[in-house]
Amino acid sequence: MKLNETHLIQLAAVVDAGSVSKGAEALGLAQPAVSRSLAQLEARVGKPLFIRGQRPLQATQLGIQLATHGRRILIESRRATEAVQSLLRGTRGLVRVCGVPFFMDAMISRMIAEFQNKHSDVMVEQSYGNLAEVSLGLRAAQLDLGIVPLGLSGEPKGLRFQPILAARNVVCCRPGHPLIRTKRLDLGELALYPWVAPLPGSPLLADLFAIRSSLGSIDLDIRYSGGSLLSLMNYLAETDALAVLPFSVAFAERKQSRITVLPVDIPQPQRNLGILRLEEGDQNPAAAAFADFVVEAFDAMKQLIQRHENAVVWRR
Fold it and tell me: Does the keyword Zinc-finger apply (predicted)?
C-alpha cells in the first residue's frame, strides 16, 4: 500500500492544530481541500483516522501513528526547502579557492574563518597556486575563485579580474637586525646580508630580481628558498637574512612582532592583487558571497594598511 505523502503532512497539521480549519490555515491551504485529502487517506487505509463525534478532533491510534510520519515528512521538507534557499543565498555550499601562498596564509585564511563564523554551513577548500595554476583550475571547473596578483598584461582570456589591493613590496627582517639601527641606509647595504628567495613561480621572485638589478652588478647572497610563510618568518627570526614581501603580509603579521619592515624604498611592481573568476557561466552562490566578503573586508582595511605604511619613515 502506497500512501500519498501530502495527505500525511496534512493529517499531521490537523492533528497538531486540533481542527481541520486551523490545520489548513497552518499549511496555507483551503479547508475543503484538506477535508478531501483526509477523506481520501481514510478511504485508502480503510480505517477511521479520527474518533467520530469528538470535539475538538481526537485522532485514533492509527491517525496518531500516521500523523507522526507526516510530521517527519513535513520537517524534512522544510529542511530541504531551507537548504535550497541557503544554497541560493550563498550561506550553504562549497567554495574552492586558490591563491598565492604568502597572501593566502597571512590574510585570506583569516577572512575564511571570519566568513565561516557568519556562515557555518559553507565548506571552504583552500589550495595554493600562482596565476597559471589558478587560470587552469578555473577553466577546468576545479576552482570557483582565485586570489592572485595581476600586472599590466591584463586578465587571461575568458576570466574576469576584480582588483582588491594595489601591490606594494617591502624588505623585511627580524626586529633586531643591524640595518634597523643604520641612520643613513642605502640600497647597496642590502647586498651585505643574505636573502630568502620566494617560492618558484611566485611574482615575488621577479621582484627580488628587480631589487638585484637596482643594485647594479652586485649579486645577492641567497641562502634559503622555497619555504612557507611560517618557515620564512622562523628563518628571519634566527638570522640576519632579508626577504621581499608584500606590505599587506607585513601588516597582517605586525602584532606577532617577529618581522619588521626595513624602511628603504625598493623598485615597486605595477600590479594589483585581486579575485579571478570565470567571465561567464553560473556563479556558485557561496563563492560569490565569499568574494563579496573579501572585497568588503579589504575596503574596510585599506585605511588601516595605509596608516601603517605612513608610519614607516622611508629612506631613499
Answer: no
146: CB partners within 8 A, 6+ apart: 97, 98, 99, 129, 131, 134, 135, 137, 138, 275, 276, 277
pTM for the whole thing?
A: 0.70
**pLDDT digit string (tens) for 262-273?**
988 888 888 999
**Architecture in CATH for domain 90-166+272-310:** 3-Layer(aba) Sandwich (3.40)
Burial class (CB in 10 A: 0-12, 13-18, 19+), 100: buried
Q: Provide the pLDDT for residue 6.
A: 87
In this prediction, residues 84-110 reach a mean pLDDT of: 83
Topology classification of domain 169-262: D-Maltodextrin-Binding Protein; domain 2 (3.40.190)
**Mean pLDDT calculated for residue range 163-190:** 88
Residues 198 and 224 sit within 8 Å (Cβ to Cβ): no
At residue 86, what is the residue type? S
Ranges for all domains in the chain classified under CATH 3.40.190.10: 90-166+272-310, 169-262
Residues 6+ apart with CB under 8 A from 295: 162, 164, 275
Contacts of 176 (CB under 8 A, 6+ apart): none
- Domain 5-88 - what CATH class? mainly alpha
